[in-house]
Amino acid sequence: MSTRTVRLDEETEQVLRQVVQVTGLSISAAFKKGLLVLRDEIAQHAQRVPYDIYQELDLGPGSYAVAPSIATRNGVQQAIRRKLRR
Q1: Which one-letter DSSP state was computed for residue 47?
Q2: CA atoms of 4 and 28, how far apart (whole Å)
Q3: To the nearest whole number, what is the mean pLDDT of the chain?
Q4: I want to staple 67 with a disulfide (CB 3.0 to 4.6 A). Which of 6, 44, 63, 71 is the partner?
Q5: Helix 27-46 vs helix 10-23: crossing angle, to nearest 10
Q6: Mean pLDDT of all residues in 13-40
């Protein structure tokens, strides 16, 4: 077991006092529990795949593409024709 010195600002010190008072845990136990929760949270984020992040993005309304990306040339031609007709 090792000993650590930690500097806390006033706000964090107050939060620590509240946690210790409400839970009845010692300061060491409160820090240990906090570290374990943080470790689990980090592990949960590490298991995310790119699609999980994509689902969280707000891309706004879709269906505004003129053509699929495989038919870019035709899509550009259609867009130009439509613009010049106005």
Answers
A1: T
A2: 10
A3: 87
A4: 71
A5: 100
A6: 95
Looking at residue 67, its amino acid is A
* Cα–Cα distance list, 20 to 10, 17, 60, 63, 83 (Å): 15, 5, 45, 54, 68
Amino acid found at 9:
D
Torsion of CA 21, 24, 28, 34, to 10 degrees: -80
Whole-angstrom distance, CA of residue 54 vs CA of residue 49 = 9
Structure tokens at 26: 């010692």
Report the alpha-carbon distance of residue 60 to residue 64 in Å, rounded.
11
Please classify residue 16 by burial: count the beta carbons closer than 10 Å to its beta carbon, then call 0-12 exposed, 13-18 middle and 19+ buried: middle
Residue 74: other Cβ atoms inside 10 A? 12
For 37-70, the pLDDT digits (tens) are 999 989 887 787 888 777 778 666 666 777 888 8
